[in-house]
Amino acid sequence: MKRAVVAGGSVAGLLAARVLREWADEVVLVEPDLLPTGPFSRPGTAHAEQFHVLLGLGQELLAHWFPGLLDDLVAAGVVVCTPGRDGRMFVDGQPRPVVAGDVLVPFYRPLLDWHIREAVLPTVRLLPDRVVGLLGGSRVQGVRLASGSVVDGADLVVDATGRGSRLGTWLADEGFPGPPRTRVELDLGYATALYHRTPDQRLDDLLAVHSLRSPVSARPGVSCIAPLGPDRWMCTISGYGDDRPTRDPDEFTARCLLEPADAFAALARTCEPAGPVRTHRFPHSLRRDFHLVADFPEGLVPVGDAVASFNPIYGQGVPSAALHASALSAWLATGEPTTGYFRRLKVIVDAAWQTSTTEDLRLPHVTAARPLTYPFQRAISSAIDHAAMTDPLVAQRFAEVINMRIRPVDMLTPAVLGRTLLATLRKP
Q1: CB of 125 within 8 A of CB of 3?
Q2: Helices 56-65 and 317-334 sit at what angle, rounded to 10 degrees?
Q3: Pairing assessment for the beta strands 87-91 and 3-7 based on DSSP bridges
Q4: Does the pLDDT of residue 428 top 90, yes or no?
Q5: Do residue 255 and residue 346 come from a single domain?
Q6: What is the mean pLDDT of residues 50-76?
Q7: Per-residue pLDDT tens for 348-376?
Q8: 118 close to 110: Cβ distance less than 8 angstroms
Q9: Which residue segment(s) compose the domain that 336 sits in?
Q10: Does the pTM exceed 0.85?
Q11: Which DSSP symbol is given to 21?
């Protein structure tokens, strides 16, 4: 193709641009934010100051497109943590079994964004503007910009404008139906604070701690601690509804002291704060089912949060964006119509959506409609989760789901289900 246009300079947009470099003579990236020339936040990533961790498949896919990226992040201060030796996961204060394999990569989001921009932007044409509409009819040929100008002659337009995407409105303006949408109202809030860290300091003899307070606990949520370079700790605590954390540093300390994993109390008692408490609110998970749109124009595809945005406590954002870019690459190689891309996209979204919403729908305050099969899904999920606390094989497969290497449905093998049944029978 001669020209491809990407709307949005998010990680999803940058990854799409990286893929399109191999297919288009020119890639135009349209982004309204003034992109920083260093690892700094920008308005388009309001959650950038919160805790982020790069899951296993995300590490692998980014390394494929950007060889040496992990080494560059480590050189910039990212601390890679080995499960068991450096990092542990807890459920209501009880440690999960250690599973060998993927390392934990907690990172500062603006740092990752900057490194990807440094690799992508020199090879694309960056246009500081905002897309407000499409050009063309049954085949999209470009975009209209807020400045009043246009970018035409496009063989492909990619919407990477995030969960607030206006693609449905753009389609309606051209006479096409928008995609059906599904929302799960979460009312999630999380707060993050930095603490001073001495060289080689560990908390409860660990570097990274992931503490899940399950839906059956008094205060469901997730809390995380990890090093942010050699001299800082980053700590995030989340809660739902009336239990959302605030910016009050005394409240943040009190929450750390109440956390069932011991490392949080150790952090509050031994380390000094290194900045204010920053909060972020995530009202709902959202998916747009483009595969259900019967009349969709060619030459147009969405990626990233413009397709689906999940509960962030599961860390699926960056890996999902990378998987969407992989689907884009595989689809372009086939020459199929847009339906071929949406077919691939559905498999990716279904897996991530099931991982997050099966647990989210267990939360007592979530009022979203449950599918007819949900009681069965919940029973199986709860039993597998229980077995993963004691059985090595189930724990290994559970970790592969968390790291997005397999789908939740891939857990339903005779071996896993048999061991799950045994663990359930032994349960007090």
Answers
A1: no
A2: 50
A3: unpaired
A4: no
A5: no
A6: 93
A7: 999 999 999 988 999 989 988 888 888 88
A8: no
A9: 3-39+115-180+291-358
A10: yes
A11: T
